[in-house]
Amino acid sequence: MNVAAIQMVSGPRPEENLATARGLLEQAAQAGAELAVLPEYFCAMGLRDTDKLAYQESFGEGPIQSFLARTARELGLWIVGGTLPLRTTDPQRVRNTTLVFAPDGRCVARYDKIHLFWFDNGREQFHEGRVIEAGDNAPVQFDLPARDGHRWRVGLSVCYDLRFPELFRAHARAAADVLLVPSAFTHVTGQAHWEVLLRARAIENLAYVVAPAQGGVHENGRHTWGQSLVADPWGQVLAQQAQGPGVVLADLDPERLRSVRQQLPALTHRVL
């Protein structure tokens, strides 16, 4: 199965970001991708954390969700909508939510980011919990029947979740073959930890990892690390892009997955 990790440098205006996303998704479809994954905050990176309150949507309706459903249908793609802000009962906070759309435009899975980023090195400070409400759902997987008949089990996560291996182990217990990590890593943390954490999650769970990211200097002044990549179950990076908007393409091979798991059946040796 050909997959696309979409890298963006989103700005504060959703309509412009959706237009950019549409062009990148079209590139992915034209290149033969069956699954395209957008980065965290693909629809907007506001000038302030509270800006996301202005374009929040109720689950099941709204222009961002309509865009994802329509684009999936028109391009015949499985589309994972990075994250978008969904309404909560608290008017001052939203959920940071990944939605999965099938090629017929149906929303088939929802995951609300569980772990909220908190970082302060004296120069940069991030505290997602000020505006985002943590998800309370169990780990979420969905099944993706590829064109060749193979059925992939796909586990969902978002950005900071990457630092919590227990979430990915739960996906492995649920027989996930592919782990998705749409992200907006900061330049500081990305430079230090991004690739090594992604490769570790692939290796320890013997699964493919698809990690689309924000990558560049945004209008709000934030610098995201980028380096969107796809890694195989042995931890090898199959494709990547350092910075700037783009489409990172790679083939996921079920025979490669089977072979690695047969040679090193670590998933059957777990005692915890």
Provide a compact summary of the structure:
It is built from five helices and 17 strands. It is α+β, with helices and mostly antiparallel strands and 272 residues long.
Highest-level CATH class: Alpha Beta
Strand residue percentage: 25-35%
Structural class: alpha+beta
Main beta sheet: 7 strands, mixed
Shape: globular
Question: Which fold name fills CATH's third level, the topology?
Answer: Nitrilase/N-carbamoyl-D-aminoacid amidohydrolase
Descriptive notes:
This protein is of the alpha+beta class. The protein is built from 5 helices and 17 strands. The strands form 4 sheets. Strands 1, 2, 3, 4, 5, 6 and 17 form a 7-stranded mixed sheet that branches. Helix 1 packs parallel to helix 2. The longest helix has 19 residues. It is globular and about 50 Å long. It starts with a strand and ends in a 9-residue tail after the last helix.
Note the main attributes of this structure.
Nitrilase/N-carbamoyl-D-aminoacid amidohydrolase; 6-stranded mixed beta sheet; 5 helices; alpha+beta; 7-stranded mixed beta sheet; 272 residues
Describe the protein's topology.
Blueprint: E1 2-7, H1 14-30, E2 35-37, H2 63-75, E3 78-80, E4 84-87, E5 94-101, E6 107-112, E7 118-120, E8 125-127, E9 141-145, E10 151-156, H3 165-173, E11 178-180, H4 187-205, E12 208-211, E13 215-217, E14 223-225, E15 228-231, E16 237-241, E17 246-251, H5 254-263
Helix pairs in contact: 1-2
